[in-house]
Amino acid sequence: MSENIEKVKCLIIGSGPAGYTAAIYAARANMAPVLYEGMQPGGQLTTTNEVENFPGYPEGVTGPEMMVQLRAQAERFDTDVRNGWVTKVDFSGEVHKVWIGENMEKEIHADTVIISTGASAKYLGLPSEQKYLEMGGGVSACAVCDGFFYKGQETIIVGAGDSACEEAHYLSKLCTKVTMLVRRDEFRASKIMAERVKKTANIEILYNTETEEVLGDGMGVTGARVKNNATGEVKEIPATGFFVAIGHKPNTDIFKGQINLDETGYIKYEKPGTSLTNIPGVFVSGDAADKTYRQAITAAGTGCQAALDAERYLAAKEG
Ligand code: NDP
Protein backbone atom coordinates (compact mmCIF):
# COMPACT_ATOMS: atom_id res chain seq x y z
CA MET A 1 0.00 0.00 0.00
CA SER A 2 1.54 3.30 -1.04
CA GLU A 3 2.09 5.80 1.75
CA ASN A 4 -0.53 8.25 0.58
CA ILE A 5 -3.31 5.68 0.87
CA GLU A 6 -5.25 6.04 4.09
CA LYS A 7 -7.66 3.46 5.48
CA VAL A 8 -10.76 4.76 7.22
CA LYS A 9 -13.83 3.12 8.68
CA CYS A 10 -16.28 5.82 7.70
CA LEU A 11 -15.79 8.53 5.12
CA ILE A 12 -18.37 11.31 4.89
CA ILE A 13 -18.43 13.43 1.75
CA GLY A 14 -19.98 16.87 2.25
CA SER A 15 -20.50 19.34 5.07
CA GLY A 16 -24.14 20.42 5.05
CA PRO A 17 -26.65 19.40 7.74
CA ALA A 18 -26.73 15.84 6.33
CA GLY A 19 -22.96 15.35 6.47
CA TYR A 20 -22.51 16.86 9.93
CA THR A 21 -25.43 14.93 11.40
CA ALA A 22 -24.03 11.71 9.94
CA ALA A 23 -20.68 12.67 11.50
CA ILE A 24 -22.18 13.28 14.96
CA TYR A 25 -23.86 9.86 14.94
CA ALA A 26 -20.90 8.01 13.40
CA ALA A 27 -18.42 9.60 15.80
CA ARG A 28 -20.53 8.75 18.84
CA ALA A 29 -20.70 5.15 17.56
CA ASN A 30 -16.88 4.97 17.55
CA MET A 31 -16.57 4.87 13.79
CA ALA A 32 -13.87 7.58 13.75
CA PRO A 33 -15.42 9.40 10.78
CA VAL A 34 -13.37 11.49 8.41
CA LEU A 35 -15.41 14.24 6.76
CA TYR A 36 -14.37 16.17 3.67
CA GLU A 37 -16.03 19.55 3.50
CA GLY A 38 -16.25 19.82 -0.29
CA MET A 39 -16.21 22.90 -2.49
CA GLN A 40 -18.68 24.89 -0.39
CA PRO A 41 -17.94 24.23 3.29
CA GLY A 42 -21.22 24.32 5.19
CA GLY A 43 -23.25 23.71 2.05
CA GLN A 44 -26.29 25.59 0.78
CA LEU A 45 -27.22 26.97 4.21
CA THR A 46 -24.21 29.25 4.13
CA THR A 47 -26.08 31.29 1.51
CA THR A 48 -29.21 31.54 3.67
CA ASN A 49 -29.71 34.43 6.01
CA GLU A 50 -32.02 33.51 8.81
CA VAL A 51 -33.15 29.94 9.52
CA GLU A 52 -36.38 30.05 11.50
CA ASN A 53 -37.79 26.60 10.81
CA PHE A 54 -35.11 24.34 12.29
CA PRO A 55 -36.53 23.02 15.57
CA GLY A 56 -34.61 24.03 18.67
CA TYR A 57 -33.87 27.62 17.66
CA PRO A 58 -36.89 29.59 18.94
CA GLU A 59 -35.24 32.89 18.01
CA GLY A 60 -33.92 31.63 14.66
CA VAL A 61 -30.28 31.32 13.67
CA THR A 62 -28.31 32.42 10.65
CA GLY A 63 -27.37 29.71 8.15
CA PRO A 64 -23.60 30.22 8.56
CA GLU A 65 -23.88 30.25 12.38
CA MET A 66 -25.85 27.01 12.36
CA MET A 67 -23.19 25.36 10.23
CA VAL A 68 -20.42 26.50 12.61
CA GLN A 69 -22.37 24.95 15.48
CA LEU A 70 -23.00 21.70 13.60
CA ARG A 71 -19.31 21.46 12.79
CA ALA A 72 -18.36 22.12 16.42
CA GLN A 73 -20.77 19.42 17.55
CA ALA A 74 -19.27 16.92 15.10
CA GLU A 75 -15.73 17.83 16.22
CA ARG A 76 -16.65 17.54 19.88
CA PHE A 77 -16.90 13.78 19.30
CA ASP A 78 -13.63 13.73 17.33
CA THR A 79 -14.87 13.79 13.77
CA ASP A 80 -11.85 14.52 11.61
CA VAL A 81 -13.16 17.44 9.53
CA ARG A 82 -10.92 18.18 6.57
CA ASN A 83 -10.77 20.85 3.96
CA GLY A 84 -10.77 19.38 0.45
CA TRP A 85 -13.02 17.71 -2.04
CA VAL A 86 -13.46 14.35 -3.67
CA THR A 87 -12.56 14.22 -7.36
CA LYS A 88 -12.93 10.52 -8.14
CA VAL A 89 -14.44 7.37 -6.66
CA ASP A 90 -14.18 3.68 -7.46
CA PHE A 91 -16.92 1.62 -5.86
CA SER A 92 -16.37 -1.48 -8.00
CA GLY A 93 -14.52 -3.56 -5.41
CA GLU A 94 -14.86 -4.67 -1.80
CA VAL A 95 -12.93 -1.58 -0.66
CA HIS A 96 -14.43 1.78 -1.57
CA LYS A 97 -11.73 3.93 -3.11
CA VAL A 98 -11.96 7.69 -3.01
CA TRP A 99 -9.48 10.27 -4.30
CA ILE A 100 -9.13 13.76 -2.86
CA GLY A 101 -7.88 16.94 -4.55
CA GLU A 102 -7.56 18.32 -8.05
CA ASN A 103 -4.54 16.13 -8.76
CA MET A 104 -5.89 13.19 -6.76
CA GLU A 105 -3.04 13.68 -4.32
CA LYS A 106 -4.67 11.51 -1.67
CA GLU A 107 -6.32 8.09 -1.91
CA ILE A 108 -8.64 6.83 0.79
CA HIS A 109 -9.88 3.28 1.23
CA ALA A 110 -13.10 3.37 3.22
CA ASP A 111 -15.13 0.54 4.73
CA THR A 112 -18.20 2.76 4.54
CA VAL A 113 -18.92 5.94 2.60
CA ILE A 114 -21.73 8.37 3.36
CA ILE A 115 -22.53 10.65 0.45
CA SER A 116 -23.88 14.05 1.55
CA THR A 117 -22.82 16.18 -1.38
CA GLY A 118 -26.14 18.02 -1.62
CA ALA A 119 -27.55 19.91 -4.56
CA SER A 120 -27.11 23.38 -5.93
CA ALA A 121 -29.96 25.70 -6.81
CA LYS A 122 -29.83 27.04 -10.33
CA TYR A 123 -29.87 30.79 -10.80
CA LEU A 124 -30.40 33.02 -13.83
CA GLY A 125 -26.80 34.20 -13.66
CA LEU A 126 -27.52 37.94 -13.92
CA PRO A 127 -24.94 40.11 -12.08
CA SER A 128 -27.76 42.04 -10.35
CA GLU A 129 -29.29 38.76 -9.14
CA GLN A 130 -25.96 37.52 -7.79
CA LYS A 131 -25.27 40.86 -6.10
CA TYR A 132 -28.47 40.78 -4.02
CA LEU A 133 -28.15 37.04 -3.43
CA GLU A 134 -24.67 37.41 -1.98
CA MET A 135 -25.60 40.34 0.26
CA GLY A 136 -28.79 38.66 1.48
CA GLY A 137 -30.77 41.52 0.02
CA GLY A 138 -33.90 39.83 -1.29
CA VAL A 139 -32.89 37.15 -3.79
CA SER A 140 -33.58 33.58 -2.76
CA ALA A 141 -33.97 30.11 -4.25
CA CYS A 142 -36.10 28.80 -1.38
CA ALA A 143 -39.55 30.22 -0.64
CA VAL A 144 -40.13 27.85 2.27
CA CYS A 145 -36.88 29.12 3.86
CA ASP A 146 -37.20 32.82 3.15
CA GLY A 147 -40.82 33.57 2.17
CA PHE A 148 -41.77 34.58 5.69
CA PHE A 149 -39.48 37.62 5.51
CA TYR A 150 -41.72 39.03 2.77
CA LYS A 151 -44.98 38.72 4.65
CA GLY A 152 -47.40 41.45 3.55
CA GLN A 153 -45.12 42.45 0.68
CA GLU A 154 -44.97 41.89 -3.09
CA THR A 155 -42.69 39.24 -4.54
CA ILE A 156 -41.61 37.85 -7.89
CA ILE A 157 -40.94 34.20 -8.67
CA VAL A 158 -39.20 32.89 -11.79
CA GLY A 159 -39.93 29.41 -13.16
CA ALA A 160 -42.79 27.27 -14.41
CA GLY A 161 -42.06 23.80 -13.05
CA ASP A 162 -43.61 22.02 -10.08
CA SER A 163 -41.18 23.74 -7.69
CA ALA A 164 -42.08 27.20 -8.96
CA CYS A 165 -45.80 26.41 -8.67
CA GLU A 166 -45.43 25.02 -5.18
CA GLU A 167 -43.34 27.99 -4.07
CA ALA A 168 -45.63 30.55 -5.75
CA HIS A 169 -48.57 29.05 -3.91
CA TYR A 170 -46.63 29.10 -0.64
CA LEU A 171 -45.74 32.76 -1.18
CA SER A 172 -49.32 33.67 -2.12
CA LYS A 173 -50.40 32.82 1.41
CA LEU A 174 -47.87 35.28 2.88
CA CYS A 175 -47.54 38.02 0.30
CA THR A 176 -50.02 40.58 -0.96
CA LYS A 177 -49.07 39.80 -4.55
CA VAL A 178 -46.86 37.27 -6.33
CA THR A 179 -45.81 37.84 -9.93
CA MET A 180 -44.76 34.65 -11.67
CA LEU A 181 -42.43 34.95 -14.64
CA VAL A 182 -42.82 32.12 -17.14
CA ARG A 183 -40.39 32.21 -20.05
CA ARG A 184 -42.54 30.23 -22.52
CA ASP A 185 -46.27 30.47 -23.22
CA GLU A 186 -46.96 27.42 -21.07
CA PHE A 187 -46.05 25.71 -17.82
CA ARG A 188 -43.74 22.75 -17.47
CA ALA A 189 -45.42 21.81 -14.19
CA SER A 190 -48.01 19.07 -13.86
CA LYS A 191 -51.52 20.21 -14.78
CA ILE A 192 -52.83 20.08 -11.23
CA MET A 193 -50.02 22.26 -9.86
CA ALA A 194 -50.30 24.78 -12.69
CA GLU A 195 -54.10 24.96 -12.31
CA ARG A 196 -53.80 25.71 -8.61
CA VAL A 197 -51.51 28.64 -9.36
CA LYS A 198 -53.78 29.92 -12.13
CA LYS A 199 -56.74 29.87 -9.75
CA THR A 200 -54.99 31.80 -6.98
CA ALA A 201 -56.26 35.37 -6.97
CA ASN A 202 -53.09 37.14 -5.85
CA ILE A 203 -50.74 35.34 -8.27
CA GLU A 204 -50.28 37.14 -11.58
CA ILE A 205 -48.70 35.01 -14.30
CA LEU A 206 -46.69 36.75 -17.01
CA TYR A 207 -46.03 34.37 -19.91
CA ASN A 208 -43.22 34.76 -22.45
CA THR A 209 -41.47 36.87 -19.89
CA GLU A 210 -37.77 36.92 -19.04
CA THR A 211 -35.85 38.89 -16.45
CA GLU A 212 -33.47 41.50 -17.79
CA GLU A 213 -32.34 42.81 -14.44
CA VAL A 214 -33.09 42.54 -10.75
CA LEU A 215 -33.60 46.10 -9.54
CA GLY A 216 -32.49 47.38 -6.16
CA ASP A 217 -31.55 50.41 -4.13
CA GLY A 218 -28.11 49.09 -3.16
CA MET A 219 -29.46 47.63 0.09
CA GLY A 220 -32.19 45.35 -1.18
CA VAL A 221 -34.38 44.34 -4.06
CA THR A 222 -37.00 46.83 -5.26
CA GLY A 223 -38.25 44.93 -8.30
CA ALA A 224 -37.28 43.56 -11.67
CA ARG A 225 -37.09 44.79 -15.23
CA VAL A 226 -38.66 42.17 -17.47
CA LYS A 227 -39.12 41.72 -21.20
CA ASN A 228 -41.88 40.00 -23.09
CA ASN A 229 -40.00 37.84 -25.60
CA ALA A 230 -43.02 37.71 -27.94
CA THR A 231 -43.84 41.44 -28.13
CA GLY A 232 -40.54 42.99 -27.04
CA GLU A 233 -42.31 45.04 -24.38
CA VAL A 234 -40.12 45.96 -21.42
CA LYS A 235 -41.55 46.89 -18.02
CA GLU A 236 -40.66 47.14 -14.36
CA ILE A 237 -42.39 45.15 -11.64
CA PRO A 238 -42.10 46.31 -8.04
CA ALA A 239 -41.19 43.66 -5.42
CA THR A 240 -39.05 43.31 -2.33
CA GLY A 241 -38.34 39.60 -2.82
CA PHE A 242 -37.07 37.92 -5.99
CA PHE A 243 -37.40 34.14 -5.88
CA VAL A 244 -35.76 31.83 -8.39
CA ALA A 245 -37.27 28.35 -8.81
CA ILE A 246 -35.76 27.08 -12.04
CA GLY A 247 -34.49 23.76 -10.74
CA HIS A 248 -31.67 22.22 -8.74
CA LYS A 249 -28.67 20.22 -9.79
CA PRO A 250 -27.60 17.41 -7.48
CA ASN A 251 -23.85 17.42 -6.86
CA THR A 252 -23.35 13.87 -8.04
CA ASP A 253 -21.22 14.15 -11.18
CA ILE A 254 -18.33 12.23 -9.60
CA PHE A 255 -20.62 9.26 -8.91
CA LYS A 256 -21.78 8.78 -12.52
CA GLY A 257 -21.16 5.20 -13.62
CA GLN A 258 -20.30 4.19 -10.03
CA ILE A 259 -23.70 4.22 -8.39
CA ASN A 260 -27.32 4.19 -9.55
CA LEU A 261 -28.59 7.67 -10.37
CA ASP A 262 -32.00 8.64 -11.72
CA GLU A 263 -32.43 10.41 -15.05
CA THR A 264 -31.87 13.82 -13.44
CA GLY A 265 -28.75 12.80 -11.53
CA TYR A 266 -30.20 12.20 -8.06
CA ILE A 267 -28.81 9.15 -6.28
CA LYS A 268 -31.37 6.36 -6.12
CA TYR A 269 -32.23 4.72 -2.85
CA GLU A 270 -31.89 0.96 -3.11
CA LYS A 271 -34.56 0.45 -0.51
CA PRO A 272 -37.07 3.24 0.23
CA GLY A 273 -37.04 4.33 3.87
CA THR A 274 -33.32 3.57 4.27
CA SER A 275 -30.12 5.30 3.17
CA LEU A 276 -28.90 2.29 1.21
CA THR A 277 -27.62 2.73 -2.33
CA ASN A 278 -27.06 -0.12 -4.79
CA ILE A 279 -23.45 -0.40 -3.54
CA PRO A 280 -23.11 -2.24 -0.21
CA GLY A 281 -21.32 0.01 2.26
CA VAL A 282 -22.17 3.23 0.41
CA PHE A 283 -25.01 5.29 1.86
CA VAL A 284 -26.65 8.54 0.85
CA SER A 285 -28.23 11.38 2.78
CA GLY A 286 -29.57 14.86 2.13
CA ASP A 287 -30.34 16.64 -1.12
CA ALA A 288 -28.09 14.41 -3.27
CA ALA A 289 -31.01 11.97 -3.17
CA ASP A 290 -33.92 14.30 -2.38
CA LYS A 291 -35.68 16.39 -4.97
CA THR A 292 -38.86 16.74 -2.98
CA TYR A 293 -38.24 18.12 0.50
CA ARG A 294 -34.78 19.78 0.38
CA GLN A 295 -34.94 21.10 3.93
CA ALA A 296 -32.13 21.30 6.50
CA ILE A 297 -34.16 19.24 8.93
CA THR A 298 -34.91 16.46 6.43
CA ALA A 299 -31.25 16.43 5.36
CA ALA A 300 -30.20 16.11 9.00
CA GLY A 301 -32.70 13.27 9.49
CA THR A 302 -31.34 11.29 6.57
CA GLY A 303 -27.78 11.97 7.77
CA CYS A 304 -28.70 10.22 11.00
CA GLN A 305 -30.21 7.31 9.04
CA ALA A 306 -27.04 6.96 6.95
CA ALA A 307 -24.77 6.80 10.00
CA LEU A 308 -27.00 4.20 11.68
CA ASP A 309 -27.15 2.14 8.47
CA ALA A 310 -23.35 2.37 8.11
CA GLU A 311 -22.89 1.26 11.72
CA ARG A 312 -25.18 -1.73 11.18
CA TYR A 313 -23.39 -2.63 7.96
CA LEU A 314 -20.03 -2.62 9.73
CA ALA A 315 -21.37 -4.60 12.69
CA ALA A 316 -22.79 -7.28 10.35
CA LYS A 317 -19.51 -7.42 8.42
CA GLU A 318 -17.35 -7.66 11.50
CA GLY A 319 -19.66 -10.37 12.88
P1 NDP B 1 -37.99 21.69 -13.60
O1 NDP B 1 -36.72 21.41 -14.33
O2 NDP B 1 -39.12 20.75 -13.71
O3 NDP B 1 -38.54 23.13 -14.07
C1 NDP B 1 -37.70 24.21 -14.18
C2 NDP B 1 -38.52 25.39 -14.69
O4 NDP B 1 -37.68 26.53 -14.69
C3 NDP B 1 -39.06 25.20 -16.10
O5 NDP B 1 -40.34 25.75 -16.21
C4 NDP B 1 -38.07 26.02 -16.93
O6 NDP B 1 -38.63 26.62 -18.07
C5 NDP B 1 -37.69 27.13 -15.98
N1 NDP B 1 -36.39 27.66 -16.28
C6 NDP B 1 -35.21 27.01 -16.39
N2 NDP B 1 -34.21 27.86 -16.66
C7 NDP B 1 -34.78 29.08 -16.73
C8 NDP B 1 -34.28 30.38 -16.98
N3 NDP B 1 -32.98 30.58 -17.21
N4 NDP B 1 -35.14 31.41 -16.98
C9 NDP B 1 -36.44 31.23 -16.74
N5 NDP B 1 -37.00 30.03 -16.49
C10 NDP B 1 -36.16 28.97 -16.49
O7 NDP B 1 -37.53 21.93 -12.06
P2 NDP B 1 -38.37 21.84 -10.71
O8 NDP B 1 -37.44 22.20 -9.63
O9 NDP B 1 -39.63 22.58 -10.82
O10 NDP B 1 -38.72 20.29 -10.56
C11 NDP B 1 -37.69 19.29 -10.56
C12 NDP B 1 -38.33 17.92 -10.40
O11 NDP B 1 -38.90 17.79 -9.10
C13 NDP B 1 -39.48 17.67 -11.37
O12 NDP B 1 -39.46 16.32 -11.75
C14 NDP B 1 -40.71 17.97 -10.56
O13 NDP B 1 -41.87 17.29 -11.03
C15 NDP B 1 -40.30 17.49 -9.18
N6 NDP B 1 -41.03 18.21 -8.13
C16 NDP B 1 -42.19 17.67 -7.66
C17 NDP B 1 -42.92 18.32 -6.69
C18 NDP B 1 -44.17 17.70 -6.21
O14 NDP B 1 -44.64 16.77 -6.82
N7 NDP B 1 -44.73 18.17 -5.12
C19 NDP B 1 -42.50 19.61 -6.12
C20 NDP B 1 -41.28 20.10 -6.70
C21 NDP B 1 -40.59 19.42 -7.66
P3 NDP B 1 -39.02 25.74 -19.35
O15 NDP B 1 -40.29 25.01 -18.99
O16 NDP B 1 -39.22 26.80 -20.39
O17 NDP B 1 -37.87 24.84 -19.65
Labels describing this entry:
single chain, 319 residues, alpha/beta, FAD/NAD(P)-binding domain, 7-stranded mixed β-sheet, 5-stranded parallel β-sheet, 7 helices, 19 strands, 28% strand, elongated, binds NADPH dihydro-nicotinamide-adenine-dinucleotide phosphate
Write the layout of secondary structure elements.
Blueprint: E1 5-13, H1 17-28, E2 34-36, E3 50-51, E4 61-62, H2 63-76, E5 80-82, E6 86-90, E7 96-100, E8 106-115, E9 119-121, H3 127-134, E10 139-140, H4 143-146, E11 154-158, H5 162-172, E12 177-181, H6 191-199, E13 203-206, E14 209-216, E15 221-228, E16 234-238, E17 241-244, E18 248-250, E19 282-284, H7 296-318
Parallel strand pairs: 1-2, 1-8, 2-5, 8-19, 10-17, 11-12, 11-17, 12-13
Antiparallel strand pairs: 3-4, 6-7, 7-8, 9-18, 14-15, 15-16
Helix pairs in contact: 1-2, 1-7, 5-6
Bound molecules: NADPH dihydro-nicotinamide-adenine-dinucleotide phosphate (NDP).
Q: List the secondary-structure elements in sequence, H or E.
A: EHEEEHEEEEEHEHEHEHEEEEEEEH
Can you identify the CATH superfamily of the largest domain? FAD/NAD(P)-binding domain
Please give the CATH architecture of the largest domain.
Answer: 3-Layer(bba) Sandwich
Number of helices: 7
- Name the beta content range: 25-35%
Bound molecules: NADPH dihydro-nicotinamide-adenine-dinucleotide phosphate
Q: Tell me the count of domains.
A: 2
Give a count of the beta strands, DSSP E runs of length 2 or more. 19
Which structural category do the helix and sheet elements fall into? alpha/beta
Largest sheet: 7 strands, mixed
Please give the radius of gyration in angstroms: 21 Å
Shape: elongated
Fraction in helix: 25-40%
Average of per-residue pLDDT values: 95
**CATH structural class of the largest domain:** Alpha Beta
Distance between the termini: 26 Å
